[in-house]
TrEMBL record:
Domain Phosphotransferase system enzyme I N-terminal: 11-125
Name of the protein described by the UniProt record: Phosphoenolpyruvate-protein phosphotransferase
InterPro entries per record: PEP-util_enz_mobile_dom, PEP-utilizing_PTS_enzyme, PEP_util_C, PEP_util_CS, Phosphohistidine_dom_sf, PTS_EI, PTS_EI-like, PTS_EIN
Pfam family, one: PEP-utilisers_N
Species per Swiss-Prot/TrEMBL record: Bradyrhizobium diazoefficiens SEMIA 5080
EC number from the UniProt entry: 2.7.3.9
Cofactor: Mg(2+)
């Protein structure tokens, strides 16, 4: 939080880029009120009617929303149609539970199940279930009419918001979504992006004040009761965003970006193969970072060699000889994976994560290395290790990889050792950069900044301190770039700084000439380089 004499500013995480200036409307779940229960037969009838009404409401919403939104709602419909599940609730009513109590406890048990899943996708489903729970309870309480009265253009603030409540809001007049918790990977974030509704998540605790709000989905800020000056600056950012979006797409088609006559290579970061469907992805110079740990969390079980090989091969085929840098599993820290990461670490960001974990679990790591070694013969593959602290770890990883390649080749399977690099995201690695014998470096500024600044990257309360432009962070970036220049080793930066136009001048001045950005930021970054190159500043 940044308090100022003029208004309160909060920083969270961007889930959907865009700007909203409007009345602040707080939305709560409020389903804990009293309800007078009837006899057993009345309660069973009440629940039956509430389920039917909820099904009808959801079907209507799905009809209006269509597409992906309808698919999300299908999950809720499927549960309502699951006879075994519903029968068990009627059995509890038969045992004397009121309809709302029986319904709530059955849904709460399901929600707890989904919440405890390691898989982010399954976790995200728990908010769909909470939504369904609340919808039926509201109907049982006679409160099931049109739920939210939200003025056009409002900034909706909630702890979290389920997809169906998002769909009930009329966004045609603009507006935005500010969540105190929430996640950029949730369904509601996906819907917001698809509809161009700005959304900021993980804003943390916000006092119950504020009648007006500015939501900046680009800078991930929420400003309450802003002063005239805050509004002026906000409108300036909004206007510049609108203009640059409009002109950026033309620049995107130009073959290269350059700054002061030097070529700047722009790669993209992906988590999954699907991310390549982004319309701007085709204009990238290649893939600068594939975060493979998202393959681990997708299915709830560790993917086998063939599944991984197919994913890596699909990316290489898409890239068609452009370089593809795949990072080995960076599980641990804020990315726990059931059956892989350690439970109960007191300080997981400083724990057994990244390459440390892979070296501790060679049986899991070897499967990934086999898939990568097989993919390496199919395209321009580079592989990098995350969270490397010492040269000995790099060498241990390299040895495992070389052994895997040798075994594959001995079995007559096409495989090779790809170019090997490391992420520079632990301060010790940046400070001792000359000790790493590797063919490339990729700076992970997200982690580098958290470790240099001693700020947990997921702690919203530290957002104002978590400044990647802090001179200490820039010093380590510049040292790494300088070492790369002297030793003719390529150095890129793939943390979120690269996707932030405000950081570009500093990164270029640090000597970086390769950046890997989110596909949605590619146009804007290319355009910013163009402006800086022609002597223009940032807007
Ligand atoms: C980083 O730390 O900057 C990075 C790119 O990796 P991740 O955000 O996945 O930790
Ligand atoms: Mg990292």
């Amino acid at each position: 939080m940044q308090g100022s004499a003029t208004g309160l500013a909060y920083r969270g995480r961007t889930a959907s880029i865009g700007f909203a200036h409007g009345p602040l409307v707080r939305v709560g779940a409020d389903t804990n009120g009293e309800r007078v229960a009837g006899n057993l037969a009345e309660e069973a009838l009440a629940l039956r009617a509430a389920i039917e009404a909820a099904s009808g409401q959801i079907a209507d919403l799905a009809g209006i929303a269509g597409g992906e939104a309808a698919q999300i709602l299908e999950f809720q419909v499927a549960l309502l149609e699951d006879e075994d599940f519903i029968q068990a609730i009627f059995a509890s009513i038969g045992d004397g539970d009121p309809a709302d109590v029986a319904w709530r406890s059955a849904l709460d048990a399901q929600i707890a199940d989904y919440n405890s899943a390691a898989d982010e996708y399954l976790k995200a489903r728990s908010s769909d279930l909470a939504d369904l729970r609340d919808r039926v309870i509201n109907i049982l309480r006679g409160d099931g009419g049109p739920a939210l009265e939200i003025p056009s253009g409002a900034v909706v603030c909630a702890d979290d918001l389920p997809p169906s409540r998002f769909l009930e809001i009329d966004w045609s007049g603009g507006g935005g979504l500010a969540l105190l918790r929430g996640s950029p990977t949730s369904h509601v974030a996906m819907l917001a992006r698809a509809r161009g509704i700005p959304m900021v998540v993980q804003l943390g605790a916000i006092p119950d004040v504020g009648a007006n709000a500015l939501l900046d989905g680009e800078g991930a800020t929420l400003e309450l009761d802003p002063s005239a000056e805050q509004v002026r600056l906000f409108e300036k950012r909004r206007e510049s965003h609108r203009k640059s979006r409009a002109s950026a797409r033309a620049i995107l088609r130009r073959p290269t970006a350059s700054w002061r006559g030097e070529r700047i290579k722009l790669f993209i970061n992906i988590q999954r193969v699907d991310d390549l469907e982004h319309p701007d992805a085709q204009y990238a110079d290649g893939i600068g970072l594939m975060r493979t740990e998202f393959l681990l969390t997708e299915r709830g079980s560790l993917p086998d060699e063939e599944t991984q090989f197919q994913a890596y091969d699909a990316v290489l085929r898409w890239a068609d000889q452009r370089p593809v840098t795949i990072r080995t599993f960076d599980a641990g820290g804020d990315k726990p994976v059931a059956g892989f990461t350690l439970d109960g670490e007191a300080n997981p960001f400083l724990g057994v994560r990244g390459l440390r974990l892979c070296l501790a679990r060679p049986e899991i790591f070897a499967i990934q290395l086999r898939a990568l070694a097989r993919a390496a013969v199919r395209g321009n593959l580079k592989v990098m290790f995350p969270m490397v602290t010492s040269a000995a770890e790099l060498e241990a990883g390299r040895k495992l990889f070389a052994d895997v390649v040798q075994r594959l080749q001995a079995d007559g399977i096409a495989a090779m050792l790809p170019e090997l690099g490391i992420m520079v995201e632990v301060p010790a690695a940046a400070l001792a950069i000359t000790s790493f014998k590797t063919s490339f470096f990729s700076i992970g500024s997200n982690d580098l900044a958290q470790y240099v600044l001693a700020c947990d990257r997921s702690n919203g309360a530290l957002a104002p301190l978590m400044d990647p432009l802090h001179p200490a962070v820039l010093e380590l970036i510049a040292r790494t770039a300088e070492h790369g220049r002297r030793a003719a080793i390529s150095v890129s930066l793939c943390g979120d700084m690269a996707s932030d136009p405000r950081c570009l001048p500093a990164l270029l001045n640090c000597g970086l000439r390769e950046l890997s950005v989110n596909a949605s930021a590619l146009a804007q970054i290319k355009q910013t380089i163009d402006r800086l190159s022609s002597g223009g500043g940032l807007d």
